[in-house]
Write a structure and sequence with these properties.
mainly alpha; Arc Repressor Mutant, subunit A
């Protein structure tokens, strides 16, 4: 049985393991929230991988998907309040990694 702490750790590790999650969250936080915009602004991101990553973030309640009833159909993504806090945590971990990653390299 998975408890709340385990589920939270699993979500963070899953987001960290996906090289696109942090980039997608940052772009969405900065107002780039439509699928076409996201795939154009993130080099190397395919539509298929983007959709999988976005769905994972929705499943974790980090993002919400807004579908507008208009023609052509318009879809936008938005960070939830929880997602904003997760983004701050992931950005802190990313900064920590950048600052200290050389400590983890083997000495030659």
């Amino acid at each position: 049985m998975i408890d709340e702490n385990s589920a939270f750790r699993e979500m963070l590790l899953d987001c960290l393991a996906c090289k696109w999650s942090l980039r997608l969250m940052q772009k969405i936080d900065n107002g780039v929230n439509r699928p076409g915009q996201l795939v154009r602004q993130i080099d190397g991101l395919s539509t298929k991988v983007m959709n999988e990553s976005l769905q994972r973030l929705i499943d974790y309640q980090v993002l919400v998907k807004k579908v507008f009833d208009q023609k052509p159909l318009r879809v936008e993504y938005e960070l939830t309040p929880f997602g904003r806090e997760v983004l701050v945590a992931l950005q802190s971990l990313s900064a920590l990694q950048s600052k200290y990653s050389s400590l983890l390299l083997p000495s030659l």
